[in-house]
Every structure is written in structure tokens, then in C-alpha cells.
Write a structure and sequence with these properties.
Helix content is about 45%, strand content about 10%. By secondary structure, it is α/β, with parallel strands linked by helices. It folds into three domains: about 140 residues, Ferritin, CATH 1.20.1260; about 290 residues, Vaccinia Virus protein VP39 (Rossmann fold, 3-Layer(aba) Sandwich); about 30 residues. It has a nine-stranded mixed beta sheet with strand order 3-2-1-4-5-7-6-8-9, sandwiched between helices. The protein is globular.
């Protein structure tokens, strides 16, 4: 079996198991298995070979090699009820209750953190054996095969976009790569994602720094690994992120399972501030009152993305840079907290660039148009440049089968260091933004001018069509509310 058939083989097997319900559970099931396989490869081929005093935190008999492979004496491997009872009755209970303390190495403690929230959904031991056999065929000790598997893992993460609400965990690779490229993290800098999901920004930053000469110098690799900081609130993406970074060569990923918003933003020490931040904060979420109290009164709100924007500004070092994905709602909102957050952004940071993305970038998870905001903590904002990202020729919008690609950012790359106003680029002064009551939702003025060539009848027809669509949506919503009440 070739590595490219891996995902399909796993899917076909798991669909037969009555315990796995939907994409999210299938991915969660697959990843704890992958984690044990990858961790075992690290132990067997690196740590045990090069470290004389290495002691595994995983007890004998529970390592992947001990139960996933055939027994040396009998030539048989556990399967059926025996395997199911072993996983549910021994493997999970022991790994969930591993004892760790301040002296425990990070690479060892990760095992407990991963299994604290992992779960075996499969109920058929024979099918579990089939999945294990597929995973066992991957040689993570092989450089070529490990790097080929990185692409397969990216496919697994991408599948989250169709896994209900789990889509929020995945940011398209083209978006993360472009943001990281523009932030240009350097070896020795701390790069953070405080809602890291599956770890896309962190792995992109790692790959970016691997290309720098300093990475190959003594201590360069360790410096980069220590400088990658991730925090993720939910258990499944946390497991995905940890496994993702291990696949990229990080022995002990510094990814904490926590809510970044639970730190008091009024008292953030310099040690907790970072050089670069690349993030796609979860938007549309609601935070409870106890979380909101970690912010100054004028910034307290239940909207998750708004709180993250305040937190990002507070956690950025002087001279630091940030690239953040935000929905249109953040741009046009002017009332209350939203307006005060944007006022703070313009006063304390240099918001130099907003890339306006078209619909469908996050399809099918959401069709809400999004924007890339780039700002530095280098002084106040004087002017903001806008760039309207163009769909490829023949596209009406991006879709799951026709996603955004990195090369489609070439126009922005060419414009970035030699900025001029043009068909897709324009700028606005900070005074104008203040006069707009901090409404950042500026449409491309060149596109607006195109309406001048249309007849009044054409414009009215377009407005009527738009109104009809909105009215239809309101009727649907009204009916759903009525049905819910009755």
C-alpha cells in the first residue's frame, strides 16, 4: 500500500465500526493511534539510541511496539476482544493516570496531557487491528516517508473543515503560510498562537525558520523549538497540534491545553510577551463572565474574537509584529467595545495592512468573508493600506474542492514592499478612520466606481435581488424561531 492511500484505507475501515460517529470522532480516534506510533518511533530510533540514561514514561507492555506488532514468540498480534479489552481496560487507564511532577521532562509529560482527553471510540477489536496494521506500515524512521506523511496529515487536518464545528480548528495552509511569510519570524524570536487549533501557524513558522542559516548552528534548532508557543482550549485540536509538531521534528512541543483568555491582561509581565503572533482567533464564540473580568472594564465583552484582539495587543512585545485573521464583523462594528478595541489598536499599534479576502476561504465551515490584519507594536497608526485579494479567473468563490492556494498571494507579495495605489490597493488616513467612527469596512473604491457605468434600472434590480435574498433568510429564521417555540 502506498502512503497516498493511507487516509482512504483508514476511512473505509472505520466506517464499518458502530462506535465511530462522524468525521470528528474518526479523526480523534486516528490521531491518538498516530501519536503512539510516532512517539514510539522517536523513542526507538532516537532517544533510546543516543541517550544512555533514557527512561520511557510509558510502561513496558504499553508501548506501540509491544502490542501493535506481532508477538516475537507466537508471531501473532492481539486482535478482537483481547485487543479491545487491552485498550479499554489497560492502555487508556494507565496512560491517563501517569504520574508527572515538576521534574518530569516535557517530552514525557506530553503523553499524559494527550491521553487525559483522548477516547477509544471503536467497539470492534478486529477493525481496530486492521487500522493498527495500516498505521504500522508507515515508517516514521524514514526521512522521505515521514515527510510524505506530513502531507497526508495535512489532509487529515483539512478534513476537519467538513466535521461540523470542528472546522474552526483548521486555517487553510495558504493563509497561514502567507501570514508567516509576511511576519518573517527569525531564529531566536518567540512565535506564538494563543488559539493554535491544529498547529498550522506554528508548523509554518518552524518551516520558515528552518530555512535560515542560524537554524543549522549549534543550539539553533533547540532555540526555535523553545520559541514556538501554542495554547489550545479544546482537547481534540490540542492532540492534533501536539502530534503535528512532533511530526515536524519537535520532541517536546510547548503547546498548553488552556484558555488563553483566562490570564489577567492588566498584569502581563514582559516574560509572557512575544515577538511575533500569527493567529486565527475563534469568532462567533461566547465567553462567560469570569473570563471577561480578565480585561479592563471598557473592553469586557462576550465575543471571543474581540477579547483575543485585546489579548494579542497586550502580549506583543514592543517592536513585535502580528498577523490575525478576522471576520468582516470586526471591521464594520463600531458600537461599544468593538469601537474602543479599534481605537486602542490605532493608538497603541501601527495597523499598516488589511488584506480583504473573498467568500469561501473557510468553506464549508463558514461562508463569512474574512480579512488579514497586520500590525506592529512600533508606534501609532498613521495610515492603513487595503488590498483586495482577487479570485482566480473563472472562480465565483473558493470552495472545499477549489481552495485558496499560496501562489494566489503573489500579487500581494509583489505589492507588499513597493506599495502603490492601484486597481486592488488603496489607503486611508487614521483621521478618516476616526471620522468614520472606527468603521474599518472600506470597499474597494475602484470597484465602487464601476457602478457609475450602470443604468439606474440595473442598480435598482441588483438592490432588489439583494433585498429578496435577505427577506428570504429572515422568513426562514422567523419560521425556525416559531417552530422552536411550538
Amino acid at each position: 500500500m502506498t502512503i497516498t492511500n493511507f487516509v482512504k484505507s483508514i476511512q473505509d475501515i472505520m466506517r464499518q465500526d458502530p462506535g465511530v460517529d462522524g468525521d470528528a470522532q474518526r479523526i480523534s480516534q486516528l490521531v491518538w493511534m498516530l501519536f503512539l506510533k510516532i512517539y514510539d518511533a522517536k523513542e526507538e530510533e532516537e532517544w533510546e539510541v543516543f541517550e544512555d540514561d533514557y527512561v520511557s514514561i510509558i510502561p513496558e507492555g504499553l508501548k506501540w511496539r509491544d502490542w501493535a506488532r506481532p508477538n516475537d514468540e507466537t508471531g501473532q498480534a492481539m486482535t478482537g476482544e483481547e485487543l479491545l479489552e487491552f485498550i479499554n481496560g489497560k492502555l487508556f487507564p494507565v496512560l491517563k493516570e501517569l504520574i508527572i511532577d515538576e521534574q518530569t521532562e516535557e517530552r514525557a509529560a506530553i503523553v499524559k496531557y494527550v491521553f487525559e482527553d483522548a477516547y477509544n471510540y471503536m467497539k470492534n477489536g478486529t477493525l481496530i487491528r486492521q487500522v493498527v496494521d495500516v498505521i504500522e506500515k508507515i515508517d516514521f524512521g524514514s526521512y522521505e516517508e515521514r515527510h510524505a506523511f506530513n502531507d497526508i496529515y495535512e489532509t487529515i487536518l483539512k478534513d476537519l473543515q467538513s466535521a461540523g464545528n470542528s472546522g474552526e480548528y483548521y486555517t487553510p495552509r495558504a493563509v497561514t503560510e502567507f501570514i508567516v511569510e509576511m511576519l518573517d519570524p527569525k531564529v531566536g524570536e518567540a512565535f506564538a498562537d494563543f488559539a493554535c487549533g491544529t498547529g498550522g501557524f506554528l508548523t509554518c513558522a518552524l518551516e520558515h525558520m528552518k530555512k535560515q542559516p542560524e537554524f543549522k548552528l549549534t543550539g539553533g534548532e533547540e532555540t526555535v523549538f523553545k520559541g514556538l508557543i501554542g495554547i489550545e482550549k479544546k482537547p481534540m485540536p490540542h492532540l492534533l497540534a501536539v502530534t503535528n509538531l512532533i511530526l515536524h521534528g519537535v520532541d517536546a512541543p510547548k503547546i498548553k491545553r488552556d484558555n488563553s483568555l483566562e490570564i489577567d491582561t492588566r498584569d502581563i509581565s514582559d516574560e509572557k510577551k512575544v515577538d511575533k503572533i500569527g493567529m486565527n482567533p475563534p469568532f462567533g464564540g461566547v465567553e462567560e463572565r469570569s473570563v471577561q473580568t480578565n480585561f479592563k472594564k471598557e473592553f469586557q465583552t462576550s465575543e471571543t474574537a474581540d477579547l483575543f484582539m485585546v489579548m494579542i495587543m497586550e502580549r506583543l512585545k514592543v517592536g513585535g509584529k502580528a498577523g490575525v485573521v478576522l471576520p468582516d464583523g470586526f471591521l464594520f462594528g463600531t458600537e461599544g467595545v468593538k469601537g474602543r478595541i479599534k481605537e486602542k489598536l490605532l493608538k497603541e499599534c501601527n495597523l499598516h495592512t488589511i488584506i480583504r479576502l473573498p467568500k469561501g476561504v473557510f468553506a464549508p465551515y463558514t461562508d463569512i468573508p474574512t480579512n488579514l490584519l497586520f500590525f506592529d507594536k512600533t508606534g501609532v497608526t498613521k495610515e492603513v493600506w487595503y488590498y483586495e485579494h482577487q479570485l482566480p479567473e473563472g472562480y465565483k468563490n473558493y470552495t472545499k474542492t477549489r481552495p485558496i492556494r499560496l501562489e494566489e498571494f503573489n500579487a500581494e507579495r509583489e505589492w507588499w514592499n513597493n506599495r502603490q495605489e492601484g486597481k486592488y490597493a488603496w489607503k486611508i488616513s487614521v483621521e478618516e478612520l476616526k471620522n468614520r467612527n472606527y468603521n474599518f469596512d472600506l470597499k474597494n473604491p475602484n470597484t465602487v466606481l464601476q457602478n457609475e457605468g450602470k443604468s439606474s434600472e440595473e442598480i435598482i434590480n441588483e438592490l432588489c435581488n439583494s433585498y429578496s435574498k435577505v427577506a428570504g433568510l429572515l422568513d426562514t429564521l422567523r419560521q425556525e424561531i416559531y417552530n422552536a417555540k411550538n
